[in-house]
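Dear colleagues,

As part of the handover before I leave the project, I'm documenting each prediction I ran so the next person doesn't have to rerun anything. This entry is a single chain, and its sequence is reproduced below.
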Amino acid sequence: MNFGQAFEQVKSGKGMRLPQWSGDVVIRAQRPDEHSKMTAPYLYVESRFGCVPWRETNIELFNEDWEVVD
């Protein structure tokens, strides 16, 4: 699926990933609450090393192989 299709699933609580990434790497959405320093939703990368903000590339955005995960 393309980025837009996968992103719609992420907005509803799923994760997304590309098949060539390591199996533990997933993009997820964070929605700030009253205890957050951030005030707007953002995407982050979750992996065995922790969580960091996601900095997308054009190659990733135009990729047609996105997978949706729980």
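The chain has a mean pLDDT of 97. The longest strand covers residues 42-47.

All the best with the project,
I.
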